[in-house]
Recover the amino acids of this structure.
């Protein structure tokens, strides 16, 4: 039995993505076969497609990490889900696992979570990888507390919009950046207390004006982080979270860093354990259900336009075009 899928047989540019028929996977053991309703695109998907891998890819390789859909079949050892359940998940297409950009996807039950009633598959997919990334950095690592001040670069970005909303949910004061008045307004709508337009304001001066006592948690999304500048605005015992910059080799201000008793966290979500991700998913589901966390979707496309979606994402991640505010979601 075949299915439509977006896949590659060779790493390279977006046009390497083919859309066509592949063999439909089965569900055996602890695997769940999901009839995919929505997938979302992440920058890491474009890096993997382009060949930045630490592991061998299946061939053909279905691209994509995130999915939401309905359980079509379950393996004989599955205990968490039954046929007909609505589920979402992430962490596919990584560490040698097959990806999600297809009509059907076979996923181990440990990487799937129920979709709350009233939440669409598009919204669930759009919050998946970016949601667990934000949760891990904020709560497992930085341990953000109510009343603290957090700064996030790019408050309307995929991860940035999740960080902004989750930090507000935790009772923090949020300072965010945006590159346009329209994006600044969206940051405020998501709950940002202060928004800095990095195209018209001096960022460091604006941060110190908004937080003269310093920043407790600094969330860095830029691919070329300036550690010197970050450390300069931190409060004593502050925490810095870095989630991008595979090729970055910035100078490190050791003296000011240790004198301020700072902590620096770097992480990738796909190295988190199944239990860690499930703890994230439980909170994300609660917050989606009560309305305190909202998906940010910039573009919705058919799965057949996966190559175009990858080009659009790459133009924004690498080319800094600024034409995406939120996630690209695709539907089979």
């Amino acid at each position: 039995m075949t299915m439509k899928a977006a896949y590659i047989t060779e790493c390279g540019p977006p046009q390497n993505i083919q859309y066509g028929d592949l063999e439909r996977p089965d569900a055996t053991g602890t695997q769940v076969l999901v009839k995919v309703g929505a997938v979302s695109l992440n920058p890491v998907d474009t890096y993997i497609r382009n060949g930045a891998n630490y592991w061998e890819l299946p061939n053909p390789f279905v691209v994509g990490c995130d999915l939401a859909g309905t359980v079509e079949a379950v393996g004989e050892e599955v205990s968490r889900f039954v046929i007909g359940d609505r589920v979402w998940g992430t962490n596919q297409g990584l560490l040698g696992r097959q990806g999600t950009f297809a009509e059907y996807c076979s996923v181990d039950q440990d990487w799937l979570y129920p979709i709350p009633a009233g939440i669409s598959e598009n919204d669930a997919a759009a919050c998946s990888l970016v949601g667990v990334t934000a949760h891990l950095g904020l709560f497992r690592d930085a341990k953000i507390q109510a009343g603290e001040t957090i700064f996030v670069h790019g408050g309307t970005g995929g991860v940035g919009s999740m960080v902004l909303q989750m930090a507000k949910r935790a009772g923090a004061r949020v300072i965010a950046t945006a590159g346009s008045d329209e994006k600044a307004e969206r940051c405020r709508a998501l709950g940002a207390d202060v928004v800095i337009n990095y195209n018209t304001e001096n960022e460091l001066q604006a941060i110190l004006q908004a937080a003269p006592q310093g920043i407790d948690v600094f969330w860095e999304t830029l691919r070329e982080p300036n550690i010197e500048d970050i450390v300069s605005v931190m409060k004593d015992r502050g925490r810095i979270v870095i989630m991008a910059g595979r090729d970055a080799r910035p100078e490190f201000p050791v003296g000011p860093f240790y004198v301020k008793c700072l902590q620096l966290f770097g992480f990738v979500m796909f190295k988190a354990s199944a239990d860690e991700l499930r703890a994230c998913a439980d909170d994300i589901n609660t917050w989606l259900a009560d309305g305190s966390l909202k998906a940010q979707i910039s573009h919705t496309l058919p799965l057949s336009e996966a190559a175009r979606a990858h080009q659009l994402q790459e133009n924004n991640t690498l080319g800094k075009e600024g034409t995406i505010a939120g996630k690209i979601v695709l539907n089979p």
